[in-house]
Amino acid sequence: MKKIRILSWNVNGIRAVHKKGFLNWFAGTNADILCIQETKAHEEQLPEELKFISGYKSFFCSGERKGYSGVAVFTRENPLSVNKWFENRKFEKFNNEGRLLITEYPGFFLFNIYFPNGKASPERLKYKMDFYDAFLDYVNRLKKSGVKIIICGDLNTAHKEIDLARPKQNSTVSGFLPEERKWMDKFIADGYIDAFRMFNQKPDNYTWWDQITHARERNVGWRIDYFFVSENARENVKNVFILSDVMGSDHCPVGIDIHI
């Protein structure tokens, strides 16, 4: 049985968080895998020390638009395979924003995803919901093969009232809309477990806070960064945690310990 620690963090700009001590923080985590969302950079824009972190392999997926979206994976073990897009022609429209890295390891597949935000316009909300459906279709096809699946990233939706500080005030805001929450219900019904809630049913556990209103100081936040596991991986999960004291972004890291 192998112990693996995976961390996930929406850094809101990897170059910005780098200036705030990212590498020192990462060195102290003892993480086997770190998944990053919202890098806001193409690989060629990064300094060498971010592209080649000692002891880790690095993989990047960037969108066509510079300074926007992007995901990355830093991993001690070289993956068996790495995929940067949904391998299905009907999902091609979702492959140009740099939102997905799928890494395969002995015993499991890891999805690192930065899901779209739907606040900007009705068109972006539709894009977000369509992306949700495309992802679920894709991961369900993979799950049918019997593999174990771990999904992490910024889902940009708080599932239940316990997952945000002010649910009533935000019931008409993208990120807590009925249709977004209904999709989360469907996702879970299809056999995926919100791993944090396996260990913690308490309120006031958040992963994102609005910077403009200094909401973090008052812990007026949202839990929109998750680890989900397929039902067949439930027994492999040993702990899930939120690192709310880690600064540098409007999100904080989340983590999972698994035994494979």
Show the helix and strand layout.
Layout: E1 3-10, H1 14-18, H2 22-27, E2 33-37, H3 48-51, E3 57-61, E4 71-75, E5 81-83, E6 100-105, E7 108-114, H4 122-143, E8 149-154, H5 178-189, E9 192-194, E10 208-209, H6 215-218, E11 221-222, E12 225-230, E13 237-242, E14 254-259
Parallel strand pairs: 1-2, 7-8
Antiparallel strand pairs: 1-14, 2-4, 3-4, 5-6, 6-7, 8-12, 9-12, 10-11, 13-14
Keywords, separated by commas or semicolons:
6-stranded mixed β-sheet, 260 residues, alpha+beta, globular, Deoxyribonuclease I, Chain A, 14 strands, 6 helices
Number of helices: 6
Query: How large is the radius of gyration?
Result: 17 Å
* Lateral strand order in the biggest sheet: 3-4-2-1-14-13
The overall pLDDT, averaged over residues, is 96
* Proportion of residues in extended strands: 25-35%
Could you say what the CATH topology is called? Deoxyribonuclease I, Chain A
Q: How many β strands by DSSP?
A: 14
Give start-end ranges of low-pLDDT stretches. none
What is the helix content?
A: 10-25%
- CATH architecture heading: 4-Layer Sandwich
Q: Please summarize the sheet with the most strands.
A: 6 strands, mixed
The dominant shape is globular
Please give the alpha-carbon distance between the first and last residues: 5 Å
Secondary-structure element order, N to C? EHHEHEEEEEHEHEEHEEEE
What's the domain count? Answer: 1
> What is the SS-derived class?
alpha+beta
